[in-house]
Here is the input.
Amino acid sequence: MTTLPINVAAGRARDNRDDALIRAVKVCKHFELPGSHSIFTVLEDINLAVKSGEIVALLGRSGSGKSTLLRILAGLIPASSGDIFSSGRRLTGPNPDVAMVFQSFALLPWLTVQQNVELGLEAVGVPMKERQTRALKAIDMVGLDGFESAYPKELSGGMRQRVGFARAFVKQPKVLFMDEPFSALDVLTAENLRSEISDLWERGDFPAQSMLIVTHNIEEAVYLADRVIILGANPGRVRGEVMIDLLRPRDRGARRFKDLVDGIYIVMTNPDRDLTTAMTGIPPRRETPYPPLPHATAGGISGLLELLYERPELRDLPEVSSSLQLPTDDLLPIVDAAVMLGLAEVRQGDITLTEAGRAFAIADIQTSKDIFRAQVLERVPTVKMIYTALKEKPNGSMRAGFFLDILDEHFPREEAQHQFETAVDWGRYAELFEYDRSEDRLFLPVEVSELTD
Ligand SMILES: Nc1ncnc2c1ncn2[C@@H]1O[C@H](COP(=O)(O)OP(=O)(O)OP(=O)(O)O)[C@@H](O)[C@H]1O
Ligand SMILES: [Mg+2]
Here is the structure.
């Protein structure tokens, strides 16, 4: 087992004191899969707390259930089992202690900035005069002084999200919830707004006691949070938490900042390293016959392998991410796919090519396809299942729907579609089968069916 350059407290998120503003106890959430009788578990046995005076980041890959958890904590949707306590009271409806900032701004286009900001106060019966005073203060706080009468369409994306913040601030919630609030903005705008929020917090002017931010951006989590809770996927569970012991304002160039980012990378690139199991004896996640394929194309995977071969000094994942100008969330699935295929290894936040990966990177196109095919057949059950089924058919062809039905048994509908598309992409690259989109059928390519029989 490798050692991490940081401390990861495994198992449940730290909540051993009674000063929790919000607490989740044994929260599970499942959805019924449409058209089948199976149930899809999104969150399993989530225990966590948000205390007064802290910023907590909830970090997880796309689909790990972050937004679902946030909605449950906000009382917008019910948990399937388990309880939420807010200010010590068990939650049975919308959480009055919380205001939310969404990724998509969600402003009403026919209302002005000020009207948008006042809206939530009107709903809870705050008198007009007070509404106005509070709204103007919130608008000022987010730097939109002078834009009170503007309409959302007249504003840039960054300004719209400022309105999103003002609309949450004006409620003076105990806890501010943010669901990827910066990810719809361009890099520079996101950076500005992030540091302004951080400044407000440091100055003590922040209109909430605590913040809970959902993100898949590791640097963002380390920059903003006092504590990072890492969610694993399938089903979403707390894998561990990391205390961010950095003084504010934070310096991204600092050694410790980098170590924390690297350490979290290690945890996130080792989805099977079950920190929770190690500490609490919770059984490992269920075996599935079709381990989920990371959403990466064969082209993306081969691009990464070539880059790693050409630039052997490039090992550190955060550096790979910045040298490719690829956000973490886009890079990690490609890395996972390369690891799943046995073409790369990740250790201590460093990625290196395996022998097969090196052979792949230097080979001519046909030889790399041969290597890819061998790795896929050995390590990717979904693609192998499709290939085997096609080989069983005398005409070597089957309807795509057949495979989608199989995947539907194991994944939610949308994810089953993603899984199918990725499997087809890999299978085609490996020249194991072809897909005719207009007929919606898969079939064996002539050469391979002849070669392997
Ligand atoms: N109402 C629903 N019915 C069925 N499945 C759902 C529903 N809501 C969410 N899911 C599924 O639950 C899983 C988690 O979704 P969620 O949106 O919480 O993830 P996330 O971590 O916020 O992802 P992202 O980073 O992409 O925003 C996904 O597979 C999603 O398809
Ligand atoms: Mg989400």
User: Anything to note?
Assistant: The longest helix spans residues 187-203. The two ends are 42 Å apart (CA to CA). The first strand starts at residue 9 and ends at 10.
